[in-house]
Amino acid sequence: MNKSNSIMRLALLQLKGSKDKTANVQNAISKIEAAVKEHKPRLITLPECFNCPYGTKYFREYSERIPDGYTSQQLSGIAKKHNIYIIGGTIPELGENDAIYNTCTVWDPSGQLIGKHRKMHLFDIDVKGGVRFKESETLSSGDDFCVINIDGRKIGVGICYDIRFEEMARLYRNEGCEMIVYPAAFNMTTGPLHWELLQRSRANDNQLFVVTTSPARDTSADYVAYGHSMIVDPWAKVLKSAGVDEETLVADVDFSLVEQVRQQIPIFTQRRLDLYGTQRRAK
Ligand SMILES: O=C(O)CCC(=O)C(=O)O
């Protein structure tokens, strides 16, 4: 990004997954190659669970160590090859004591791992007649926040269900973030109702960019993702939105909008912190 003109080019890769992990990762790599060639983005984002079918029965089998596993090594290599940042969607991570996490990795242009976020709020819901999912059957929850810095801009990372917890987004704003990136896979029950609403709400509440990257919709999968990867600006306008199939969504994000909206609607200086607050707690 050129700080003087405050523009950063993003490419969001909405990818179709399969049960073949190597094919999923290689699909991501070839779409990264194509996006770099055609659009020259500074930052590429990938979907939640892009190397594995989204289902609790798959997570252990597909899990890998970070950063030594196959998927990490591929992402590290391609980030370095093309001198780009990658917010690498999520993969099932094999962590300490054999615990499995739903984890996002962030890679810098030298191929270094500069951030890791383990999904903090596990997706355990049961909507009668709609979607039932219980990540906690096989996953453990993370308990660290993840803020990265790209060209002087702070970016917070959350994963899918994390977007429902407004305190987390507020905390990122309070820590100076101008964008939050959520790899995500909403579904056909909550997607139509809440997908855009939640993104516009988090953007509006916190006056920052919200970026989500979903898998493409596959109606033959166990879990049918909603699609519609999206970029919402700090005015809460949808800047760009994908359809449901595989797609590369490209946008030039202008960070000067962040300052503009924060000055014109100064809710963060008007908030009655003498009466209430949202702070990170010591663990
Ligand atoms: O919050 C929702 O409705 C969907 C969340 C989800 O699919 C996930 O956390 O993976």
From TrEMBL:
Matches recorded under InterPro entries? C-N_Hydrolase, C-N_Hydrolase_sf, Nit1/2_C-N_Hydrolase
Span-the-membrane segments of this chain are none
**Catalysed reactions, semicolon-separated:** 2-oxosuccinamate + H2O = oxaloacetate + NH4(+); 2-oxoglutaramate + H2O = 2-oxoglutarate + NH4(+)
Q: What class of enzyme is it?
A: hydrolase
What terms describe the molecular function in GO for this protein? omega-amidase activity
Query: Does the record bear Nucleotide-binding in its keywords?
Result: no
What Gene3D superfamilies does this protein's entry cite?
Carbon-nitrogen hydrolase
Question: So what EC number does this one have?
Answer: 3.5.1.3
Pfam families given in the database record: CN_hydrolase
- Report which residue ranges the record marks as coiled coil: none
- Lineage in the entry? Eukaryota, Metazoa, Ecdysozoa, Arthropoda, Hexapoda
**Which residues does the UniProt record annotate as the domain CN hydrolase?**
8-255
Q: Does the keyword Hydrolase apply?
A: yes
Query: Which Gene Ontology BP annotations are present?
Result: asparagine metabolic process; glutamine metabolic process; oxaloacetate metabolic process
What protein is this chain from? omega-amidase
Please report which protein family the annotation says this sequence is part of: Belongs to the carbon-nitrogen hydrolase superfamily. NIT1/NIT2 family.
- Which UniProt keyword terms apply here? Hydrolase
Q: Name one GO cellular component term.
A: mitochondrion
